[in-house]
Write a structure and sequence with these properties.
alpha/beta, Rossmann fold, 3 domains, 5-stranded mixed sheet, 21 helices, 26 strands
């Protein structure tokens, strides 16, 4: 990470970010998206800036002023980005809402933020707003991105409302925005209570963009494939980062099943993701090779043994020997090149964030030459804080602090962070703000360690530490990660707080279960498979092996297979797929008590 870094964009805020970039990159591609005909279409910086100007003037004609709250609910798509920049250009604070949120969750965010305008993606999202609109006295206008509705303003109608405005009005509006103004109130998808609104200023995000740029997370002229929800700070950082340096955002087709095919079509240089996508590609590749059996499966396994030896030699600064190089070249042609092609074959950097990723998955991709790096951050740090990067990658850690960030470990092991990217506090919650920021240091809630080279390892969440009846402190996530390595396991929740020993609630991966059923010549009926003695026996053997890696007090003594996977709809997962442990413990109280009683 260069200490001679100079910002590529002269923007002071996120409001003048787009017009500045459009002046530099006018006819270059800014957006790439699938049109209704099913082909990829590109929009230039000039066109994006003109569209944002029209929408900004439309919002101003509605009466949106500096400091007002404008909420956006919808999938990641070009229109989301256009409205985001338009709202910020009026000086308003944008309140993102997850497209997967229920009407009551939307109601909480809209009411708490006192949003005057909500921009809904389509009829489906508009239906949620209709359901709760009567309980939102601050809400004055509803805008719909796609289509038309009697009780909402369409995109075309909004543009028309701003027709009387001018380019000078637009420029005066975005130039009036100051770095200390709030650009976002992002509601954390709370795992332990109601969401808290994180206040992020334009200056916070500008600092974060400089940090990301200095770490070369995104580069000029590159394409980044974006499927993450724009209600999440990780997606927002990539969106702003690409616009900041003159890159191109390739928007997904809003279909989980098309993410992998899209990657092959778009061939991006950068790909931000959560661990689940990398895990799925890994599991599918391994299952396919094993399913082919015989020589193909043997070559696959051999290739990864060779790849790991080769990368280990490289990491130690040694030149791999003649025989190892020959073996590696064969493995690369036969196996690794095909793994890279899944991601389009053009990746310079893929970042995994938002949740821990299994180090074995990272070693798999490292062997295959997929440049996948783990990073760490939180909403309260405007996205980032540490990252691994090419040439500075230590698997099992979340990397080193980015330029401009200071870290230290508190006496109780909590990671503290300081920097210009640290947020302004929680909206309408001064008590929580005072607890979280002391003397400029943000208390992250993560238990961590920092090695002699500055690499940070996250041990677990402070609030999730299990203290057994015997007084032992245990980090459940490490044990859960080991259990989840089995292809059949989708989720694992370890329980044991103030209990004599640990137990686990396990859910099954439906795709892996279908393959397992076919291999065993069994009936693939989910209910029957969950209760299958063979499935249980397979998991018992796996947990026995996992237990060997842990001290007796950290071993799982009993487990229960739940009939359904955990989900956001079921209330057990946040929109970013983090487990709501208190919800799980309450919802499955009977199953937990039965395990301890048996």
């Amino acid at each position: 990470m260069s200490s001679t870094y100079t910002p590529t964009n002269r923007s002071r805020t996120l409001a003048d970010l787009l017009p500045n970039s459009a002046a530099r990159h006018g006819s270059d591609g800014a957006f790439l998206f699938k049109n209704e005909a099913g082909s990829w279409e590109e929009t230039s910086y000039e066109k994006v800036a003109a569209e944002v100007q029209a929408l900004t003037l439309g919002l101003k004609a509605l009466g949106v002023q500096r400091g007002d709250k404008v909420a956006i609910i919808g999938n990641t798509r070009p229109e989301w980005t256009l409205f985001d920049f338009a709202a910020m250009s009026t000086g308003a604070t944008v309140v993102p809402i997850y497209q997967s949120n229920s009407p009551s969750e939307c109601q909480y965010v809209l009411e708490h933020s006192e949003s005057r305008v909500v921009i809904a993606e389509n009829e489906d999202q508009l239906a949620k707003i209709r359901e709760v609109r009567d309980s939102l006295p601050a809400l004055e206008n509803v805008v719909i991105m796609i289509g038309e509705a009697d009780d909402a303003i369409s995109m075309n109608e909004l543009r028309a409302k701003g027709d009387s405005g001018s380019a000078e009005d637009y420029k005066a509006s975005y130039e009036a925005v100051e770095p200390d103004d709030l650009c976002k109130i992002v509601y954390t998808s709370g795992t332990t209570g109601p969401p808290k609104g994180c206040m992020i200023s334009h200056g916070n995000y500008r600092a974060m963009l400089d940090m990301a740029d200095s770490a070369s997370i995104v580069e000029e002229g590159e394409t980044s494939y974006l499927f993450l929800p724009l209600a999440h700070v990780f997606a927002l950082l990539i969106q702003y980062g690409m616009i900041d340096i003159g890159g191109r955002i390739a928007f997904w087709e809003r279909d989980q099943l098309k993410i992998v095919p899209n990657l092959a079509e778009v061939k991006p240089e950068s790909f931000p993701s959560v661990p689940r996508i990398f895990e799925k590609v890994h599991d599918t590749a391994v299952a396919t090779a094993e399913g082919e059996g015989g020589l193909k499966a043997a070559i696959f396994r051999w290739a990864f043994r060779v790849g790991k030896r080769y990368r280990k030699a490289e990491a130690q600064g040694k030149k791999p020997g003649f025989l190892l190089t020959k073996q590696f070249n064969f493995a690369d042609k036969a196996v690794f090149s095909k793994i890279r092609e899944i991601f389009g074959g053009n990746l310079r950097v893929a970042i995994s964030g938002a949740a821990p990723i299994d180090p074995e998955i990272l070693r798999f991709y490292e062997a295959a030459g997929v440049p996948l790096f783990e990073a760490w951050g939180m909403t309260e740090t405007s996205t980032g804080g540490t990252t691994n990067m090419p040439g500075e990658n230590r698997i099992g850690t979340v990397g080193k602090p980015v330029d401009g960030v200071e870290l230290r470990i508190a006496e109780d092991g909590e990671l503290l962070i300081k920097g210009d990217n640290v947020f302004q506090g929680y909206y309408k919650n001064p008590e929580a703000t005072a607890e979280t920021i002391t003397d400029g240091w943000l208390h992250t809630g993560d238990i961590a360690s920092i090695d002699e080279d500055g690499y940070v390892s996250i041990i677990g969440r402070k609030k999730e530490i299990i203290i057994t009846a015997g007084g032992k402190n245990i980090t459940p996530v490490n044990i859960e990660q080991e259990v989840k390595r089995h292809p059949l396991v989708s989720q694992c929740v370890v329980i044991g707080d103030r209990r004599p020993y640990l137990i686990a609630l396990i859910t099954l991966d439906q795709e892996a279960l279908t393959r397992f059923a076919a291999e065993q010549g069994m009936l693939d009926e989910p209910g029957a498979m969950v209760g299958s003695p063979l499935v249980r026996e397979t998991l018992e053997q796996h947990i026995e092996e996992v237990n060997r890696n842990f001290a007796r007090v950290e071993q799982i003594k009993r487990f229960h297979i739940l009939p359904h996977d955990l989900s956001q709809e079921g209330g057990e997962l946040t929109p970013t797929l983090k487990i709501k442990r208190p919800v799980v413990a309450t919802k499955y109280e009977k199953e937990i008590e039965d395990l301890y009683a048996s």
